[in-house]
Amino acid sequence: MPTYYENQTTDYIGCRDSRFTDIALACQSHLHYHIELAFLMEGETRAVVDSQEYTMRAGDVLVVFPNQIHRFESPKKEKYVLLLVSPEIVPELLGQFTEALPVSNVIVGAANDPELREMSYHISDIYHGEEPFREAMLRGSLLVFFCKLLQQMELKDTKMGDHHVLDSVLNYCMLHFDKNLSLELLEKELHVSKYYISHMMNQKLHIGFNDYVNSLRISAACKRLVKSDDTVTEISEAVGFNTLRTFNRAFQKQMGMTPSDYRATKKKEGVIVASGDQKKSR
Asked: In CA terms, which of 50, 151, 185, 278 is 20 to 30 Å from 27?
């Protein structure tokens, strides 16, 4: 089964809740730079994360770290809350999510904890609601939420050279996308052939190196376009593009509109945290 890199246009957080949708958890093998959490309230599903297979039962929680390849296989409809969260929303925990991996991605029985279960629904309700100070409430709730979950997880160190080359490449790009990244630089920094990196990304993720880096930059640019009054040129430079023309071309390719049109559209919609086309989907 092929793996694909999933572009996330959600700036910070996406949420899918079975109370509001009939979509099952099932999805094909993919990865992204968001943290993904699945709270299984009822039912059973099979999850695969980096070749490790898990059978999730009611009450279990799956935590997928950035750039871990994963998929769900659902024999029947489940009741769940699924969260997609950018590591940037919890900068206090960025090191845990980018320099470590779980020994086990499943926390057995965590969703049966009344406090955690209530928090998952509370975060979903805030996300789907229109409350004042929504962004601040989400940030605060997610920080507490992650701290409680991480206390129940055993992590292993994954510094450069200690884990799979692909993880090293993707994590390095995620942390340095706003710099002048190139295959030559990664070859020097990671001591891996640039030709091997290019071949590996195309073969395993079906995406070229430049397209992957641009997807990270465009995601960061989307957030700045909505959250700041910086000019398009300033944002282009801040997220790592060398020229405004290159930025506009890459933005149009990924988002289907110009940066200026995106800013006008999102501000007209009154978007606070997540882009409108992702607000009610994963």
From this structure: 151
